[in-house]
Structures are given as C-alpha cells and as structure tokens.
C-alpha cells in the first residue's frame, strides 16, 4: 500500500513520517509532493491508496487538488491536514470525498486514528470493487449464451421481440425503426478440411472465433449481429438489418476476414429481405435451403442466395441400389470385397453432375437405416451402444468434408464407410464362432445335468441369451430342438439304468429327471417304441 504526503513545508512532511508506524498499517511506500501540481503527477504515476494533503500551498492548493482527485482518482482516500479552522475548507473536504480534517499542530492519536479509518474504508471499497469485477466477469461470460438463447427464440417466436426491444437497441444497436432484415447462415456441417482438422478437438473455440470475426464487421457499423443458433448447434446465424441490398458484399468482406484470421473460407447461405421480426423464420429457411441445395461439385461462389435448381441433372442415385452387394460383402468377411463395393459406390457418386448437402444427408440416412438392420441380423444380441458406434453417429457431421478449394472431398467418407463395414463383418464372423461355441456349451451342460429339472428359460438365463435365439441356433446345429435333444439324452441314460433289475422304474425315472413315472413311461414309449418294462425284459433276455 502507498501513501502520498502533500505539503509545501518539509518539516511537516517529516513530522508526519515520524508520527506513524507505517508497517503496522501495511504501508511500504511513502511518497512526497510540495504542492498540488506535483501531487497530481505522482498520483497519475504511482496510484497511492492514501493521500494526506495541506490546503494552503503554492501553484495548486489543496482545494483544487481535492477537486482533481475527485475526478481522476476517486478510489483514493484523502485526509486533509490544515492550519486553518475554516468551515468552508471543511465543507469542501467533505464535498470532494475527504475522510478526515485534522488541524495543525498535528495530534499523533488523531493522525493515526484518521489513517486507520481511511485504510479500513479503502479496504472495504476495494472488496466491493473486487466483487463487482467478479460479477462483471461472470456477466460477460454468460452474455453470449444469453444472446444465443434470445435471438434463437426470435427466429421461431417473433412475439419475444417487444419485451427486449430496448435492450437490443441499447446493446446490439438494433434500432426499433428497423423494418426489414435478412438472415444469413454459416454452417459447420460443410467446411474446408483445414479448419475442421485444426479445431477438431475444440469445436466450441471454432464457433467462438467465427462469431467474433463476424461481429467485428457487423457491430461497430450497426450492420447486424452474429450468434450461435441453439436449435442447430453447428450453425452461426447472422441478422443483417442495415443496407440489405449490400448484404452479399458484406458477407464477402467477412469471408475475407475469416480467410485472414483462419486461413480458410466458409460458405454462407442468405435469405431474402423480409419484415422484421415477423418474417425472420422465412428468411432463415431460405438461407438454410440455399446452403443445403448448393452443388458441392463446383465452386462458383461462397455466398449462396435463394436456391434455384443447380445446372445439370439432379441425382437419382440411392444407397439402396447397392444394398444386396454390400450385404453379401459383409457376410463374406472378405476385406477386399468390402473395399471393392465401397469403391463402386463412390465411383457412382462421383459420376453425378450435382451433389448437394441435402443429397449427402439423404444417402447418409439410408446408410444408417441399412447398417442398423444388418447389425441386428449379423450380430445377434448386440447392444444399442455398440450399434451406435458402428453407425458412425459421432462422425456424421464430419463426413461432408470440403477440400482447400471448397469442393466436396469424398475420401474421408470412403475411409469411414470402409472401416465401419469391415468392423461389422469382423464382428459377424466372431459372432458366428461364438454362437457355435455357446451352442456346444449348452449341449455339454445338458449332458452333465440331464437328471435335473431343466427348462429353456433356465438355459436362457444361465447363458444370457434369449429363448428364441437358443431354440433357433440349437436346431440349426443339431437338427432337433433343445427339448427333444434333452429327451434323447435322458432316454439313453434310462436304457442303461433299466438293465439293472434292482432299480424300480420309478427310481429310474427320477434318476433321469422325471418326477412322474407315468409321464416317463409315456415319453419312453414314444421315443423307443416300447414301455420301460418291455424294454427291461428285452434287454435282460439278451
């Protein structure tokens, strides 16, 4: 903490130095000035927290100094030490923020008490200033989120405008007199690979950077405002309310700024000028359509206006046309076959005259539907989270990738499709191997536990498989259903036991898993063509 002593008499300054235990108050720097003008220079340079000043001094007196401090150093605390018991001077001290007025000759106790009071007041004020700074930081951190929410809602609900109109005019410079507006969209769904790769681990930082660049061109000149669309997180929306006829040129200038800052350009879609705020949604939809229906195989402009059909034939290609070939490649488990069919699909896409983001999205949707069906068929019992990873859900937004010229690059999509299909095929082969193993494990279990009361539900619970799945796979492997297979084991064991004349038929039935002798006899006759008693006589007579 610093203190400044202002008095034209050096012996007074020396006396003040001696009368105070400065270290006790946490003061490590004591500055001195012989008049008000010298004091203002020191205050501007050193920013002392406490100022002790005389009132009657040459060049600039204490009255003028207090007025200057009130304007230029309002946080500093001032103690007046004067030889004049003048009410007008006291009133001036109070008016311009002085904390105390001490008369000469200086009383040590009064001086220390005044200094302590000034320091405590400064500390209390500083605590309040710190709290306000923290609050301002928090407010500034949440402001972008606030505007994102408010302006996103304005697109869908024009009625939300009136309650915040004054705030929009005050903070975003959106005048109440604005009658029309154009909406532009910058979408991260299609963007140059160089930007996506640079910010692949922090998309939020990319959005923040792009919004700031846009607003550097919009806000100072009252042209508009850019924000993140909360209902479509990969979109940056721009409201352009000034000079709508020049909006395309403005977006081109913003794109030049993005190029300078991030070394890449972006595509903008822009809607027509419509009534504000009632028709914002219409202009927004036009901007979206302009982006979604642009041809990605050519690059004539970065600014796309209301969509008109692209030159050339619209593609009628569908992913379903290749479904059977891809399915066969999956079942084969052959990596080369999978790579070849993906290449055939990509070659078909490359032959299209027109490829739009909307078309890519449609193909991607077809792929996901088919992949979900194939996964459920080829990998029975697969969990939903496993299916999601195989569908490349997390990578969907990065599949539509542009090269450095802004043209469609299909190489990443081809890599991801190939990797995903190979993974499904691999899991299918593992599933087949695992299925065969588990079915034989079930058969082995039946061989060891045939004498127990076993049901299909018990087997399903024990091996964590569905009853339907076990029944189907068991019959595929052993050509009989599980209950008949278990019955064959029991009858085979019963025949051996019936050869022992000392065992009653009821005992034999119980030993092979039947509690009811009559039911055992019925099943035995059905499977061997004779009753247990007849079989015993025949076996013992041999």
Secondary-structure map:
Elements: E1 2-6, H1 10-19, E2 29-33, H2 36-46, E3 50-53, H3 62-72, E4 77-82, H4 87-95, E5 98-103, H5 108-156, H6 165-172, E6 180-187, E7 191-192, H7 193-198, H8 203-218, E8 224-228, E9 235-240, H9 247-262, E10 268-270, E11 274-275, H10 280-292, E12 303-304, H11 323-332, H12 335-350, H13 357-378, H14 384-390, H15 396-399, E13 401-402, E14 408-409, H16 411-449, H17 456-463, H18 467-478, H19 482-498, H20 505-511, H21 517-528, H22 532-541
Parallel strand pairs: 1-2, 1-3, 3-4, 4-5, 7-13, 10-12
Antiparallel strand pairs: 6-9, 6-10, 6-11, 8-9, 13-14
Helix pairs in contact: 2-3, 8-9, 11-12, 11-16, 12-16
In short:
This protein is α/β, with parallel strands linked by helices and 542 residues long.
Could you say which overall geometry the principal axes of the C-alpha atoms support? elongated
* Class of secondary structure makeup: alpha/beta
Instruction: Write down the Rg.
Output: 43 Å
Mean pLDDT: 85
- CATH topology category name of the largest domain: Alpha-Beta Plaits
Number of strands: 14
Number of helices: 22
Which CATH C-level class of the largest domain is it? Alpha Beta
Strand content: 5-15%
Q: Any idea how many domains?
A: 4
DSSP helix fraction: 55-70%
The CATH architecture of the largest domain is 2-Layer Sandwich
For the termini, the CA-CA separation is 118 Å
Instruction: Output the CATH homologous superfamily of the largest domain.
Output: Reverse transcriptase/Diguanylate cyclase domain
Domain Response regulatory: 2-119
GO biological process, one term: phosphorelay signal transduction system
Protein name: DNA-binding response regulator
InterPro entries: CdaR_GGDEF, CheY-like_superfamily, Homeodomain-like_sf, HTH_AraC, HTH_AraC-typ_CS, Sig_transdc_resp-reg_receiver, Tscrpt_reg_AraC-type_HTH
């Amino acid at each position: 903490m610093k203190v400044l002593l202002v008095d034209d008499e050096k012996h007074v300054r020396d006396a003040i130095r001696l009368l105070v235990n400065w270290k006790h108050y946490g003061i490590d720097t004591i500055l001195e000035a012989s008049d008000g003008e010298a004091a203002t220079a020191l205050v501007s340079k050193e920013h002392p927290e406490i100022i002790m000043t005389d009132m009657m001094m040459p060049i600039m007196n204490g009255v003028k100094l207090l007025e200057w401090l009130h304007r230029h150093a309002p946080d500093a605390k001032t103690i007046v030490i004067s030889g004049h018991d003048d009410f007008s001077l006291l009133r001036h001290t109070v008016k311009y923020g002085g904390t105390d007025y001490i008369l000469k000759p200086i009383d040590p106790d009064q001086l220390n008490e005044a200094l302590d009071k000034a320091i405590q007041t400064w500390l209390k004020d500083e605590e309040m200033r710190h709290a306000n700074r923290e609050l301002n930081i928090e407010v500034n951190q949440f402001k972008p989120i606030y505007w994102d929410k408010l302006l996103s809602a304005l697109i869908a609900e024009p009625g939300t405008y009136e309650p915040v109109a004054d705030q929009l005019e005050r903070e975003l410079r959106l005048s109440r007199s604005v009658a029309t507006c154009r909406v532009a969209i910058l979408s991260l769904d299609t963007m140059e690979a160089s930007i996506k790769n640079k910010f692949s681990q922090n998309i939020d930082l990319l959005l923040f950077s792009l919004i700031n660049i846009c607003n550097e061109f919009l806000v100072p000149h009252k042209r508009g405002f850019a924000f993140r669309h909360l209902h479509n997180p990969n979109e940056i929306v721009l409201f352009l309310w000034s000079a709508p006829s020049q909006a395309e040129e403005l977006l081109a200038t913003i794109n030049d700024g993005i190029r300078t800052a991030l070394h890449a350009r972006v595509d903008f879609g822009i809607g027509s000028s419509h009534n504000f705020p009632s028709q914002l949604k219409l202009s927004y939809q036009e901007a979206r359509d302009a982006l979604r229906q642009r041809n990605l195989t050519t690059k004539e402009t970065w600014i796309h206006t209301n969509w008109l059909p692209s030159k050339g034939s619209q593609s009628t290609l569908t992913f379903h046309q290749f479904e059977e070939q891809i399915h066969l490649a999956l079942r084969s488990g052959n990596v080369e076959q999978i790579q070849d069919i993906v290449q055939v699909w990509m070659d078909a896409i490359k032959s299209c005259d027109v490829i739009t983001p909307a078309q890519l999205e449609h193909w991607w949707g077809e792929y996901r539907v088919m992949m979900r069906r194939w996964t459920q068929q080829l990998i029975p019992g697969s969990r939903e989270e496993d299916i999601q990873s195989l569908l490349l859900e997390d990578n969907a937004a990065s599949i539509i990738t542009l090269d450095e010229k802004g043209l469609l690059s299909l190489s990443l999509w081809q890599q991801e499709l190939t990797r995903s299909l190979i993974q499904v095929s691999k899991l299918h082969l593992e599933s087949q191997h695992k299925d065969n193993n588990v079915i034989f494990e079930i058969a082995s279990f039946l061989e060891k536990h045939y004498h127990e009361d076993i049901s299909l539900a018990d087997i399903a619970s024990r091996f964590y498989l569905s009853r339907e799945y076990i029944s189907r796979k068991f019959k595929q492997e052993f050509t009989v259903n599980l209950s008949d297979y278990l019955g064959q084991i029991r009858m085979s064991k019963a025949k051996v036991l019936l050869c022992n004349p000392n065992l009653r038929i009821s005992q034999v039935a119980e030993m092979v898993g039947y509690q009811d002798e009559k039911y055992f006899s019925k099943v035995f006759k059905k499977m061997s063509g004779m009753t247990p008693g007849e079989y015993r006589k025949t076996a013992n007579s041999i």
